[in-house]
Every structure is written in structure tokens, then in C-alpha cells.
């Protein structure tokens, strides 16, 4: 989920977040948003910056995810360019997943 819970998303940023729900992690079968891998989206002009992380460093599917992200983000009206900012801090952990993702993966708290 978005790190700064107080951030008000613009309509374009909300559309990007919705579009990112279409990008499924091929190993887990859950979308990147519900997995908690998307930390922030910012749309400025016709460019969107996606701050995100991965479940593990050295993920062999990084290029697959990058292409899928760029495809859905640039399909949002008014967004022509997508910059992906891959970050490792804060580190991802299962607590960042939504309840939906936890239930889908059989994780019970």
C-alpha cells in the first residue's frame, strides 16, 4: 500500500493505482498493490513515477514486472511515460500485504 497513508491521490494517480492492480506477481498470483509492493505513485504532467519494491532482492522476474507495469501505467489516459523507482527501504514484509492477499495466500493471523 501507499507508504504515506495521508497522501491524497490525484485522479490520475488513483487511476494508476487501479491499473497496477492488473499486474500480477507471477510467482504468487496476487497483484502488486495487494502484495504491498507499490510504495507510491506520482503523476506529474504526462509522466508517472512508481516507487516500488520486490519481495526479494535479485528477483529473476524483475524485467517481466517492469514491462507489465509500464504497459498498464501508460494505458492510463494522459500518462505517456512511466519511471520505475525500485527501492529496498523500507524492506518488504508480509505485514504490508492487504487482508485480501493474505487470505488468498492462506496466511492466517
TrEMBL record:
Pfam families: FeS_assembly_P
Domain MIP18 family-like: 13-85
Gene3D superfamilies (alphabetical): Fe-S cluster assembly (FSCA)
Name assigned to this protein: Metal-sulfur cluster assembly factor
Organism: Levilactobacillus suantsaiihabitans
